[in-house]
Amino acid sequence: MRLVTRLNVGGPARHALLLTRELSAEFPTVLGAGEVGPREGELSDPAVVVRRLPLRRDVHLLSDIRALAAVRRLLTRTKPWLVHTHMAKAGTMGRLAASTMRPRPLTVHTFHGHVLEGYFKKPVERAFLEAERRLAARTDRLIAVSPEVRDELLDLGIGRPSQIEVVPLGLDLDRFLAVDGPDGRLRRHLRLSPNVPLVGVVGRLVPIKDVSTTIRAVQRLDGVHLAVVGDGELRSTLEAEAAELGVANRVHFTGWWDDVAAVMSDIDVAALSSRNEGTPVALIEALAAGRAVVGTDVGGVRFVVEDDKSGYLVPPKSSVALAERLSVLLADTALRTRMGTYGRAAVRERFSAQRLVGDMRSVYMDLRGRQRERK
Predict the structure, then answer these.
(1) Residue 6 in 3-state DSSP?
(2) Alpha-helical regions (H) of the chain
(3) Which residues lie below 8 Å from residue 364, measured CB to CB, with a gap of 6+?
(4) Distances in Å between the alpha carbon of 225 and those of 77, 249, 334, 364?
(5) Separation CA 193–CA 184 (nearest Å)
């Protein structure tokens, strides 16, 4: 049984769909997921059937009780030997429900980042932290998507070193690795000529992504345009901010695009100004497309971006530092090309779908051996 809070556009959903599809022959899997929020965008895979559950991201007592009951009913019907959860709410409901089953299935939880800093108000963060500590104590294996995430968890008292395994994100990168020059569709859509400097941001427009800092960085760069590819609760706020800063004519909100590889092919530099990240999918895809990147040095970004080799790392919330690094890259085509080439080679195998599937196969086989020993 694989449980994910929601299949919104991002790393956890890609991870869950890919593993469910690619490991189905060896480990037949039922995938359960909640509903996405408004304007989040939802991922799907024609080869994967999704069982809908009343999981929701926010904390709501009555809804959470119903969700827990629904998860337990699904576990009772399917009787899995292993429950693998992704994202905080699914991780809570899945592991609590599994603990009430007899025999109890083995449990795995993947931390794709964490919700313990920057996502909620402090009292809620403290409650999440205590809950994660207690849940970790009864989880058979914890997965962190980067060494940085693992170290943060241990520093917070979540899990034991012997219990946590680092399994980096894996993605279908073939479309990005195949990029060989500009596609042109994004620039035609934005009515920009090939010689106009264009920075790209791809992702959800939510507070933790702090797209506002990128907009303020672009304000400092005369003649530079920004493509904001994605959607979310802050879109109207960010559009208003761009207008207030006098850059509405240079900041373009496109909504979600199905062909992100085409987007990456048309931008000069990819930017990310998140306040926290697990593994930044957008930067992996940009590097696979041969684009240099600038990202904030938070969470697992350093695990993806090698500073001064595939791009630059800057402090969070600093539009000045972000603008300075973007300016350096936009002014030097040879530097961008060199960094993009290095980055493409670095992510090709490191974040491939094949590597992820192989790593998780090993985890499952080890756990299956343990499960058989218990019988």
Answers:
(1) strand
(2) 11-22, 61-78, 88-99, 122-137, 147-155, 174-177, 185-190, 211-219, 235-244, 260-266, 281-288, 301-304, 319-330, 333-350, 353-374
(3) 23, 26, 27, 82
(4) 53, 8, 20, 46
(5) 9
Cα(284)–Cα(361) distance, integer angstroms:
23
pTM for this one? 0.91
In the chain, where the domains are located: 2-170+352-374, 174-350
pLDDT of res. 17:
97
| CB atoms inside a 10 Å sphere around CB 239 | 16
Neighbours of 3 (CB within 10 A): 30
Q: What is the CATH number of domain 2-170+352-374?
A: 3.40.50.2000
% of the chain exceeding 70 in pLDDT: 97
**Is the distance from CB of 330 to CB of 224 less than 8 angstroms?**
yes
Q: Report which residue type is found at 164.
A: I
Q: What is the pLDDT of residue 373?
A: 73
Query: Is the peptide bond between 194 and the residue preceding it cis, with omega within 30 degrees of 0?
Result: no
Tell which residue, 76, 111, 116, has the closest CA to residue 97: 76
Q: What amino acid is encoded at 307 in this protein?
A: D
DSSP 249-294: TTEEEEE--S-HHHHHHH-SEEEE--S--SS-HHHHHHHHTT-EEE
* Residue 183 three-state SS: coil
Q: Do the domains spanning 2-170+352-374 and 174-350 agree at the CATH topology level?
A: yes
pLDDT tens column, 36-61: 988 888 999 999 999 999 999 888 89
Question: Residue 281's closest CA among 209, 214, 203?
Answer: 203
Q: Please give the pLDDT value at position 37.
A: 83
* Per-residue model confidence (pLDDT) at position 127: 81
CATH architecture of 174-350: 3-Layer(aba) Sandwich (3.40)
Share above pLDDT 90 across residues of the chain, in percent, rounded to a whole number: 87
Confidence at residue 117, expressed as pLDDT on a 0 to 100 scale? 58
The predicted-structure confidence for 86-123, as pLDDT tens digits, reads as follows: 999 999 999 999 999 999 999 999 999 765 555 556 77
Count the residues in the chain: 375
Low-confidence ranges of the chain (pLDDT < 70): 114-121, 374-375
